[in-house]
Design brief:
Structural class: alpha+beta
Number of strands: 14
Distance between the termini: 49 Å
Radius of gyration: 22 Å
Order of helices and strands: EHHEHHEEHHHHEEHHEHHEEEHEEEHEH
Strand content: 15-25%
Helix content: 25-40%
Shape: globular
Largest sheet: 5 strands, mixed
């Protein structure tokens, strides 16, 4: 069995995620497509303190790009991506829709992803008929004023809103896009998905599981079974046999990684670079770091999102982005886009142990580029919090 050092595994992972791809001066739809093939999915999140989560992984890999590329891919024909629960709520390539049908039927059997939607055939029919007649609509457009409930933390949904979410989860409706308030627009699947995608036969559960593991392995490069399961949020009972089959077929190669207790699997087509020259700020929802145990093993970097932690208990800040330089994570910064002032604010900046001398200079350059991309024309400001803040403030 082949053995890899942690550094080798780290570089393989970075290559698989697209951090070795040459950045285009002006990213095009072809650039977008290539990047999506690397990441597989783009997690969607409503937090907008810096930039919406689904835009950031593209920026980290492609550099400054026109965010309309993603909107066009998601909302214009021929649609290339669609939202679904592929990891969590995420944009996924449209060709994954048939692979998700078993997941959809499982949600139908338990009345929703969380099992909270009561049966109401009349409401289901009326909502689908209304969407068919109106076209893409938000829950607010369709809400009939039914009583709302606060039984579940963070939710204040009407019966209409809960039913629409159920219909989307089971595939009876699809997400056609979002409006300027980030509200979901629901529509019929046949008006969202390309006809050739909807016409595809539903693969067997085993075929669907094998393809999802295969895609996860390509996006990871090298990974443990837990990493492979997490990428598309699969159950162990589904992922395990798929991993075994891909090992038997020679697509996954069992390997050991120095210091890792769990066995790992290398995709046979994974690139194995000797060095990397990446420089990127990573969203908390970036596929490179969203599996926190994997992040700690690969980068010796303990990372926790602190959005939901009370302010006085936060260690590093509210919206903290790791800073990737070369093949290491060398720092982290708490960032905020102050749109009213037209300024990118660094609310805290920390260096990791052993960060190279050029960390502050490279980070300053990356922050200026990020501010330009976000159309924040005023100089970047750095608050005096964190051991990297003084050097960074002197450079920006």
């Amino acid at each position: 069995m082949q053995s890899l050092s942690t550094a080798q595994a780290r570089r393989i992972a970075l290559a698989a995620q697209g951090f070795l791809d040459t950045r285009h001066a002006v990213p095009t739809m072809r650039t977008f497509q290539r990047t999506l093939e690397r990441t597989g999915v783009l997690q969607v999140d409503s937090v907008n303190v810096l930039q919406r989560a689904h835009y950031m992984p593209l920026y980290s890999r492609m550099g400054p790009y026109d965010v309309d590329l993603l909107r066009r891919a998601a909302e214009r024909r021929p649609r290339r991506v669609v939202e679904y629960w592929a990891h969590v709520q995420a944009f996924m390539p449209v060709e994954l829709w048939p692979l998700m049908r078993h997941r959809m039927e499982a949600h139908r059997a338990k009345r929703g992803k969380w099992g909270i939607v009561e049966e109401d055939p009349e409401l289901e029919k009326n909502l689908i008929d209304e969407v068919r007649a109106r076209g893409a609509s938000t829950a607010r457009n369709l809400d009939d004023g039914l009583p709302r409930t606060k039984e579940h933390w963070g939710w204040n949904w009407s019966s209409t809103r809960r039913m629409l979410d159920y219909l989307y989860t089971v595939g009876d409706l699809a997400i056609a896009g979002r409006n300027s308030q980030f509200e979901v627009l629901y529509d019929l699947p046949e008006r969202v998905l390309p006809a050739h995608v909807l016409a595809r036969e539903t693969p067997s559960p085993a075929e669907a599981n094998r393809e999802l593991v295969r895609r996860a392995a390509r996006s990871h490069g090298v990974a443990t079974a837990q990493c492979l399961r997490d990428y598309y949020r699969m159950d162990a009972k589904d992922a395990g046999p798929a991993i075994a089959e891909l090992v038997e077929e020679g697509e996954l190669l069992p390997v050991t990684i120095d210091g890792w207790k769990r066995p790992a699997y290398l995709h046979r087509d994974a690139r194995r670079p000797r060095r990397t020259h990446a420089r990127a700020l990573l969203s908390p929802f970036d596929p490179l770091v969203w599996e926190r145990e994997r992040t700690e093993r690969l980068f010796d970097f303990r990372y926790r999102i602190e959005i939901y932690v009370p302010a006085h208990k936060r260690v590093h800040g509210y919206y903290v982005l790791p800073f990737l330089l070369g093949d290491r994570i060398v720092g982290r910064v708490d960032l905020k886009a102050d749109r009213q002032a037209g300024r990118l604010r660094v609310q805290a900046a920390y260096a990791e142990p052993g960060a190279p001398p050029e960390t502050a200079e490279e980070l300053a350059a990356e922050l200026r580029q990020l501010a330009d991309w976000l159309v924040l024309p005023e100089p970047v400001t750095v608050e005096p919090r964190g051991d990297l803040a003084p050097a960074l403030a002197a450079l920006v």
